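Progress report, Aim 2. The chain analyzed during this reporting quarter is listed below.
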Amino acid sequence: MAGALHPPGKAVRVDGGWRITGQVPFGSGCHHAQWLAMPAKEEGADTPFGAFFRRETATILDTWHTLGMRGTGSADYAVKDLYVPEHLTVPVAPLRNPPPGFEEPLFRMWPWTAIIGEATVSVGVAAATVDAAVHLCMTKTPAYQGTALRDQQLAQFLIRQGTCQGRSVA
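Predicted structure tokens for the chain:
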């Protein structure tokens, strides 16, 4: 999951849920997440609520042009008139009946789910690193050597050791 916390989108109540329209910046990890979250607020309401939806129902906008931190993929994403069922929304408020082990104030804060979703930043950085290493080994011939890295057994072995189950240079 990836999420952004501000600004809230516009929410209109419909039968069984909400119609959400809005755009949020800094959706770190949105390219790798299966689910996205964004705040939404009904006109006249005091507080927003969290809305959760599948990544493919949103438009990821090409807004993340940085030096460094490219792997975080913290692009904007937007939805327009997206139906979100009531069971995929959550109030922005402390947990009322937290499970055992989550009673302390820090754990009662919302949106814990969005904070936990920041792990996707690490996954994005790791994926970009592996892709760059594989690309380098596929295209580089080291100085003063006549054999490309892709044809060297040691390079293949080391990439295989460092990649995740099944990715290889060959």
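Helices lie at 105-108, 112-116, 119-139, 153-162. Residues 119-139 form the longest helix (21 residues). These observations will guide the mutagenesis work planned for the next reporting period.
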